[in-house]
Every structure is written in structure tokens, then in C-alpha cells.
Design a protein that fits this description.
By secondary structure, the chain is mainly beta. It has one domain. Helices cover 9% and strands 54% of the residues. It has a two-stranded antiparallel ribbon.
Length: 65
């Protein structure tokens, strides 16, 4: 699985909870994946394609090519 090249965000794992009649009756595994984009970025004067999460793009941590 790919990860963000800036903040190194990867997939998280946990349980999906099914709430029935005010009791947690069933748990099943699930995965939360980061919102990754493959972006052309200027790195030391070169253009490279890296995976960057949407939050890093929005915060301006990456300079696009």
C-alpha cells in the first residue's frame, strides 16, 4: 500500500461496530485508507511523481511542478 511521501500517512486498521438496540453486538474488521494523490512535484529542480495525501496538498506542504 502506498503512503504519503510528506507525512508518511498509511492505512489504519480497526473494528467496524454494529450498534443494535443500544448494545455493540458485532465487530468486524475494516481499514481506513488515506486520500492519496499522485502528483508531479519539484524536488531539487527536478520533476518527480510522488504520492501525497490531500491534506498535505491543501496545507501547501508541496510545490507542484
Amino acid at each position: 500500500m502506498a503512503k504519503c511521501a510528506i507525512c508518511e500517512k498509511t492505512a489504519n486498521h480497526g473494528n467496524k461496530l454494529s450498534i443494535t438496540r443500544s448494545h455493540i453486538s458485532k465487530r468486524s474488521p475494516r481499514t481506513w485508507k488515506p486520500n492519496l494523490r499522485r502528483v508531479a512535484v519539484d524536488v531539487n529542480g527536478e520533476t518527480k511523481r510522488i504520492y501525497v495525501c490531500a491534506k498535505c496538498l491543501k496545507d501547501g506542504k508541496v510545490k507542484r511542478a
